[in-house]
Each structure stands twice: as structure tokens, then as C-alpha cells.
Fold this sequence. Notes:
Subcellular location: Cell membrane
GO cellular component, one term: plasma membrane
Number of helices: 17
Protein name: Adhesion G protein-coupled receptor E5
GO molecular function, one term: G protein-coupled receptor activity
Helix content: 40-55%
Membrane topology: Multi-pass membrane protein
CATH architecture of the largest domain: Sandwich
Structural class: alpha+beta
Amino acid sequence: MEPKWALLLGFILSFRSFTTEGSSYTSDKGLSSVIPAVCHGVQCNNGPTTASADPDLEISGDTDSEISGDSDLEISSQPYLTMSTQASLDITASSFPAHRQDVIRATQTSETTSQNAFVSPKGAAEQTEIECDQFKSKPDEDHTPEKLNQMMSLLKDSCESLNDPVEKHFNAEELLENLCNSTDDLLLEGKVADGENLSVFLDMVENSMRLIGPQLKDPVTKMETQNTYAEVALTRNQTPPSGSVTLSTDSALFSTSWETVVGKAYSGFAFVALFSYKDMNSSSDLSHKTSRTLQEDSRKRLHVDEKKITYQLNSKVVTAVVSNPDTKKLSDLMMLTFTHEEERAESGGVAYTCVYWNESEKVWSGRGCVKEWSNSTHTVCHWSHLSSFAVLMALYPVQDTFASVLITRVGLVLSLLCLFLCILTFRFCRSIQGTRNSIHLHLSVCLFIADLVFLCGISSTHNQVACAIVAGLLHFFFLSAFCWMLLEGVQLYRMVVLVFHTTLKHLYLYAVGYGVPLVIVSISAITFPKGYGTNKHCWLSLEGYLILSFFAPVCIIVILNIIVFIITVWKLALKFSSLNPDLSKLHKIRSFLATAVAQLCVLGGSWVFGFFLFQKNGTEVMLYLFIILNSLQGALIFIMHCLLSKQVRVEYHSLFVRMCPYKKKGDYSVSTEPSHSSQKRLQSDQSTGESQL
């Protein structure tokens, strides 16, 4: 055949092969070239593909030339690419301008997959169509949010536009931005909290990313809005990619391999996307939707009745999408590292579980999920399938151990016994009557009632009214105990600084000791009545700021006491350095001050540990420290103010002698002598300014 005739015939055949009505490539439409990419992951209907050419005809083209409607195709008789019934024509990314870097592969075969593009000569093949029914909105269903229907309609129009070479196509970046903005609106409106809408919503996001992902231009695309964060990695090459790929959002890190992303069949491209939702975890309705299997597993693992376990999302919900259409059972596990919304380590009462959203059952499920490790800030999970994932925090009541129960009961009983002896001593011991003694008496009464209520009612959570009363009594009497300690510090200051009128009036004592706590408790009960009593303890609720109505006054009292003690010590040192110090009086005040400081340390220190104990992350160590220090309060007051006081020991000895009738008469005369000296000491005490009450 003459070269010029071959050239003419080759041009005619090549022109027809690129302008046939059934061809999937249209030169003047940039997104038409990515139809095979869009088909990947969604259902496509392909017609039969046929291609024929004169086997003697050899067609070659400059691979560096740009193929378009007005481009020139160089034809020569030199062998470069042969088209026959067994040959295939590959049009790679190097044949297109930069904005069309998509792989189009036309293969002449009897069976073509939905992921392969084709060039059909002579109009023998039908155009590849993308199935867009998955984006069909359901306006007839009242519970489907209107915003969700609008987004589904937009995605459906974009999907259908790819099937029409004449219609204007949507930009992939614009579609991704619309998806993020619509997601923001839905989350702000709280329209996806129920299981039905959440399943539709998450399914829409997955299908949207399969539609948008292959159309993106950049290898890595990131987009962040108010409530969403998306990151997409895309690769296009003739050979399948290999190695690892990692995506991250502000709350999760997703790691897998390109081999898993590609799957069994490679279509010239691969993409992986990670979508994060910021406010979805705040919905308590979603946290309670757990599968029966998950509840049963939690019961066996935690050894707690499943009805007592409550669940809470402690991470943002994320959706992972890959170009591999078969993600129900992956050969290689994918890894997700979640950042906790609330920093809380696994301990007694807290356990973490990796879960995914089961769209068919509309619940959180743990099937196919393995938790590798967890700490207070992060949880690492492995998955054998893809979906939307999160970390579920299981909250369950911790059963008190035998040791803690034993220490609590023994310690409180010991404290109650010592406080009871203190009350009797301060009330009936005549040699120590005075203002300080009266303060010690009321302090002991408050601690005695508080410890008794604590021992009998702290765990009475079965009766809501009784539990609230117990919490109110504990609130009042513990606050009152701290107020009486403050009064003791003020009294010591007056004894050192003032010469006359050193005692406090009864009205002031009762107003501060009982009036201030009563006002605080009354205001707290009126403003937040439901805060008295919790599911775990009959104490103040940790929700809101009610707990501050106890710890704020306690902190103020402790700080004031420290200031008063510092000033008192300074004044006392000046007294000792004076020219004519009353050493007996100063030594007595110094001993009073030492006991008051020790008392403040024990009572204040116990509630430092008590503050952390009643928090959500309280530990068993804090429990034991609180119990031990709380038990030492009564014993400490009895030892410092009774056993270490010589006057009280004399009174005890006198009482013991009177209670023993078998003693000889001479013994009584000896034992009564200290009684007279004690009266003199009483007069000496009164000379320091303390009045009897």
C-alpha cells in the first residue's frame, strides 16, 4: 500500500475511533475523562466493548502531544502501537494536559469490569453510566432532615452530570466544601442524633467521598470547617502503589497500606479519605445505642450488671473510606489512634472500647474491633473492616473492697468513740471550762454527727430522698467543723494580742459556727436541689458547680487560719522577747497554738484527699488516705486536748478513784489534793481572759 494512502486511511480510522458516539472520552469536557475513576466504588453499567482495525495498519502517535478537539494526531507507517482484536490501547496521564491527569485505559476484551474505561470504534459500544441511586433523597419520610435531603440531591445531580458529556460538571473541591458545610449545619441542628438519620448521614458521607475522591486534583487535599475535618490522599499511576499511608485529623490518626487501599483490582488510581465530626460525640442519645453483644461483652469483662453500665463517647466520630470496594473483611488490619475528649485513664469504674456504627442495626458495635492499648489521652484500635468509628467509654460502679470497707468502719468507729469521750470531757470537766473549751466542744459535736451520718448513710443511694438528706447533713456539719476551727484560731490571736476582753461573745460564736454553714447549705439546696446525692455516693454532685459550695468555703477558712496562725506566732515571739514576759502564760498559749496547727493539718489535709476522691478519676489510694485521716480527727482531738492536758488527766484520775469503791480511805485523801490545785489552775486560766460558758 502506498504510504500516502496508508496515511489517509489511518487518519480516517483514528478520527472515527475518537469521535464515535459511544466513546467514554470527550475532548472538550475535563471531567469526562474521570468517569472510570468515579465508577470505582459505585455501581456502573457497562455495555459490550468491541474494537477492530486493519491488522496491517500501524498507528503511532507522539505521546507528548495533547489530545483535544483541535489537536493533530501524527500517523505514520512506522510500528509504534498496533491495534488488533487482541491488542489494547492505553492512554496515560502523559497524553493529557495538567488538569486532566487521570488514567483512561481502553481495552478490547470480551469481558470488561466497571473500573475500566474504553474506546469504542464505529459506535459499536454503549457509553459507561454511573449508578446514582445511592444519592436519592427521601423527602416523603418526615424524620429525614431537609438539609440532608438537599445534600443528597446535590450529590445526585453531580453524579448524573458525569453521565452527560454536554452538561456542566461540578468541581470536586466545591463538592467537598458543600459536603463539609452541610455536615456542619446538620450537626449544629442536632438532626443526626437518632439512629435512622445517623445511618443515612454516614452512608451519604461514604458514598460522597467515593464520588469526590477520584475527581480531586492534588495528591493530598485537606479541608476544615467549623464542625468537620476532611483529608484525602490520591495517587494515579500505571502501576499500583505500595507502602504505608497515614492520614490525620485534629482528633484521630489513620494508618494503613496502599495494598489494602487498592484491593484486588487496580484501576489506575487509588484514594483514601478520613472524615472527622467534631460535635457528634456530645449527643447522649448516640452513646446509649449499643449492641446487645457489646453489652454482654462488657458485663463479662467488667464483672458488673449490664444495667449498671453507662456508655459515653470519649472521642470524635470519624469515617474512613478507601477506593477498595471490598472492605467488609480486610486481610490486613487498619489502625486508628483516637485522642480522648476527656483525659481519663482506664481504672476502677472506667473502661474503653473501640466501636463502629452498625448502619443496619443502628447501634455501636465492637465486632471486628481490637483495642491495642489505651492511656488517659489516647486509645489505639485495629479494624478488620471500614465504617465510621469512635471510642466508647464504659462507666460502671466500683464494688468496695473488703479492705476499704473494714478500714472505713473500724476507723470511723474509733473516731466516734474518741469524739464521744471528748464531748463528755469538754462538757463535764470543770478545770478546763472556758472559751477554747467551748469551741472544742462544738467542734467535737459537729465531727461526731458528721462521722456518724457518714458511717450510716454515705452509701444509701437506693432512696433518693434519704440520700439527699444525708448529703445535706454532711455538707452542713463538715462546714460547721471548719468554721469552729476558724474560731479557735481567732480566739488564740485575741489571747496573744489583746490584754483585756480576749473572749468572744456567745452570739458571735454561734453565728459563725452554725449560722454561716446554714446560709451556705440553704442557698445551695434552693439553687440546685438535685445536686444533693449521686448514683454512687450520698454527697454533693460533681455536675455543675455545687461542689464548690463546700470546697470554696473550706479553702477560704484554711487560708484565713494559716494567716491568723502566722500573725499569732509572730506576736508570740515578740512577747517572749519582751523585758518582762509572763512565761507561764506564754508557754500555755504556745502549746495551744501547736495543737491548733496540728488539728488544722489533719482536718484540712483529709479533705484535700477527699476532694480528689470524689472526683471522677479518684483512686483507691486517695480513698485509704481520706479514711485514715478522717479517722484520726477524733483520736487527735482526744489525745491533744484531753490526754496531753495535765488538768484533764487529774480530772480523769479523780473520776477513776471515785468509781473504785474498794480503794482505801487514805487513797481518797491523797487523790483529792490535785483537785484543789486544779481549782487554782482554773483561776489562773481565768486570769488569762477566758470566761466560763
